[in-house]
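Ticket 4471: requesting a sanity check on a complex prediction with adenosine-5'-diphosphate. Repro inputs:
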Amino acid sequence: MEDAEDLKAAPGRSNAELACLLPHPAADANKYTRGHLSLVVGSAAYPGAACLAAAAGERAGAGYTEVFCAGKSMITVRGWRPSLVVRDWRAWKPAKAPAPRPGHPTACVIGCGFDAAETSLTSLLMETVRGWKAPLLIDGGALGLIANATGLRLARERAAAGRATLLTPHGGEAARLAQGAREALGEAEDAAARGTRSPLAEAAGALSPASRATLVEADSAPAALACALAEAYGAVVALKGPVTFIASPDGTAEVMDRGTSALAKAGTGDVLAGIVGALLAQGLSPRDAAALGCALHAEAGRAAAAALTDICVAAEDLITHLPDAIRAIES
Ligand SMILES: NC(=O)C1=CN([C@@H]2O[C@H](COP(=O)(O)OP(=O)(O)OC[C@H]3O[C@@H](n4cnc5c(N)ncnc54)[C@H](O)[C@@H]3O)[C@@H](O)[C@H]2O)[C@@H](O)CC1
Ligand SMILES: Nc1ncnc2c1ncn2[C@@H]1O[C@H](COP(=O)(O)OP(=O)(O)O)[C@@H](O)[C@H]1O
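Returned structure tokens:
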């Protein structure tokens, strides 16, 4: 990896490059071949996040959209959109799900509407990080729950097993992930001082000096922070903000700067997670799913602002205007 000062994210992709990735259904498609999206979302405190992420995922092309949520959230999610398949999250068994097979892509989104203070959700998350074989997108409150030495170790074990992970933090969540990586570095140093061998110590030892420096600093630039988190957690990281940086564990990064401040409203991140998760569930790589999903989200924000003004846009409007975003990218 380059020195932190030298880090340059590649410019955003062109419409032509993105249009090639759009997952139009094949003539012989059925709901299973189009992609199965499982969302583990929506605690009792935040049923709305489940509604937004799931509806966005369905609209972004997933053939079968299944929501696992708190029992108290089920009625809200069912009432919001009858086409969603809604289950209690006690029925979520990530390790028992079949491995993805050719022609039947699948992915999971976890964390929209999790409360990071709700530690009872930690086992649900860690079981998923450990057991879910297909691509996994971690968002919202789940990012706070994975931001520790155990979470980092499990994320790295997924990467070592060839299982894809995508993290979608906002600035506050990215700061927590960096704190978790610092905790892991500290534990690794303690283990090294004791002469104990541990996977965490080896992982921390292998971290590039640039990433180490970025994680230790309090105010790292977002591009460098996205790259350092990607390397530390072994995941693609889309660090959201007025400009979004998409970084991969190999040290490459790209910018997505199509957004609008009309997007600065509660729930727009849940919509993004649903869109990107649906693209993963339709077989795109994490890097391509993040690049296309973030661009579609931003274009939907622009289309919604054109129709409604940049004052009036709310998260639901992005779902309504997703077709305009697809047309903008195809034009
Ligand atoms: N309708 C709903 O049900 C909604 C549920 N949501 C869910 O609420 C949970 C908590 O998410 P929150 O983001 O509100 O709370 P967080 O606990 O993640 O964020 C709280 C703190 O993080 C920092 N922060 C937040 N956004 C930031 C940003 N964009 N840039 C820099 N720092 C930032 C601020 O210091 C803020 O006080 C998540 O699981 C999320 O999915 C939210 O997405 C809002 C909508
Ligand atoms: N000023 C801005 N300009 C462009 N995009 C923005 C701006 N503010 C927020 N966004 C986008 O809106 C989304 C907000 O996500 P997030 O903070 O996770 O919201 P929430 O947690 O409420 O769902 C991100 O995709 C982010 O890039």
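Notes from triage: Residues 1-6 have pLDDT under 50 and may be disordered. Leaving this open until the requester confirms.
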